[in-house]
């Protein structure tokens, strides 16, 4: 018995098969006609005379062998092909095959040019997208007002009436009115079902679906809808975990199929894919949430600063009541902003052809704002005659030089995103990067909008990877001179160590006042800082008991002495220019001379190569390096012999030591960058075992070059100290560096400072105790600033919570006062919710929404009270005494109970009719 053919019902035609089927559609029609004629028995065989060949085809076939074929054909008699082909009478000889004379590159229909077809398809997509956007815009106003009313009636779809049919409250048509039936798939947390809905033409279909507890995927003709509690669950999961749409939809489908109905696709060959419908529904749900928040903010008449406090971070943007110590002017009312770029978020130009109109969220900088900043920069450059110059810090930054991933950017329209966050990891503003790198207009556009949103008297600190370059850029072009005094720039702590030492002493937040422990990240470092505080306190306590050999008399080290030494060190560092071409050429000359000296020493000892070829290579290398050395000496403005005689001078040895230390420092920064994910796992960053093994493997592979750099550094330091002061070789800090010491060394270690390379004989350059004391003093200054910043942020948070609660209560009182008869149609809330035609229903809905928002805010304050009550009250002048919200609100609870009783007894039917009329409007819905 043969095997039965297994049929796979889930197999679909591939894309190429569909294209082939469409291309041969005409031929298939002709073949079907022939088959039908054969079945009916009325098909007439038409024999085609194949002897009549086109002259061109004959000439083409015989162009190379014409003489031989002609000679052969003369002796052969012709055969009648009609008799031969008649043997296969069932073959339809009159059907034209697809292999005709049309070349593949030629179009069968010359008028249908591919460019015209592509343009027509793009136009059709634009029209369809615009129609969909218009329909959605028309339906959203009615959907939003219905959403507000239904959310109140169902307690945000958490009560037993969440899935009751509230359509009769919105539709007042009689039973004889025209209705349309359509199938729709309803998906809930616990199951799914395909039902038949009856829609009335008096309102949008999405409103009727929402009246049953589901949100439709389309405003006009929805084919799927998802329950409000499912959408709420997805929203919370999306906020607190990494949830993607496709896996979530697939998980929900499998979970629902086990417990409810199986939803087939259109062809009944498999389950229906609802991921796109879920995506559209989630977008609509988020729009409703945003519209609800905008409604409350419009009702409260919030300013831009107040909106930042509500939606972003009250600790940074909230108002201040002046409580607390406020002893440090460097951080008084200071607001710190961090900027960074993510180049992992790209969009390929050919990834999608959707023509949906661009909608820029409020948190994003609008493209027009970015263009205005670019135009302003161009005007300032033209006004002050600025020429573009290379910036060393920007060129060393792989993202800031506009060359990172340049080949990838060519195929992408959106290449990344720039974001700004406060000290508490709350996103403030975002800017989309379109086709370029990290250009200056992006941070300036974000900064311009941020400065316009906060108070004009608040100083702002900006931490940015290229903060030094951006600061020089602004000063050179005199950008925003009215706000320049209150803006201070710094570099993110880790990126700061990549910059040169003169740049660090000016822009590293660990060395500058006003930054606290802000480092450009959101890591919770206060606990670690307090541990470091205790360690630095021990160091300072020991140093102030130690005699100071740098001052006359028998005095000990003092804090004032350490501060004066730091000021002198900063002055010397800022006076020193960056490494110029002369110093680089000198480094190259000394390195080459070391190689030449090694060759000469081998020749003097008689250590010749083993072969003649290797000897020739050595002689050739000596000759080429000698020519290069003479050219370098000429470029330095001196003679080769004279410069060669200075190779063992103090300056030359110091230059070689500086080069060795710079190379070793570069490796230290690289190793620290690779270890950063491992070191920050305690701060909430997740790191798997495989990734950790890869990181440790990369670190181990750098062991050989690190050991080589350490050996060279030790050798050159010994040579330099032996020349300058041999007694310093016995000091502990000048002992040979080991690999273990290198791994345990921090980037803030005094070894990495360029103290030895300023030709200074000051205590900060020679005395290790002074360097240790300076480091401890600077860190304790930052800890003190951090405590002051936290005190101010606590004050602003509590003040905002109390004032915002008072604002909500006063707004509720105003709405209730305006709702009393007679109602003024031109009251202060008349411009809100214009879709409501009757003022009474609008005021009632606004009051309900603000009360709901007040309840959420009071719950937030209760959660804060536990943390705040345990803090040091004296440090904020007993601000908690104002926190009386736990004992208040009794009248509001009684009012809510009365409203619930009215809704249960049905006394609010008149009000419902008023609201319903406002929802649909007096003229009925329009689609």
From TrEMBL:
Annotated Pfam families: CxC1, KDZ
Domain CxC1-like cysteine cluster associated with KDZ transposases: 156-261
Residue spans of biased composition, Acidic residues class: 886-927
Superkingdom: Eukaryota
Region: Disordered, residue numbers: 1-26, 53-79, 867-927
Biased composition (Basic and acidic residues): 875-885
Protein name as catalogued: CxC1-like cysteine cluster associated with KDZ transposases domain-containing protein
Organism: Puccinia striiformis
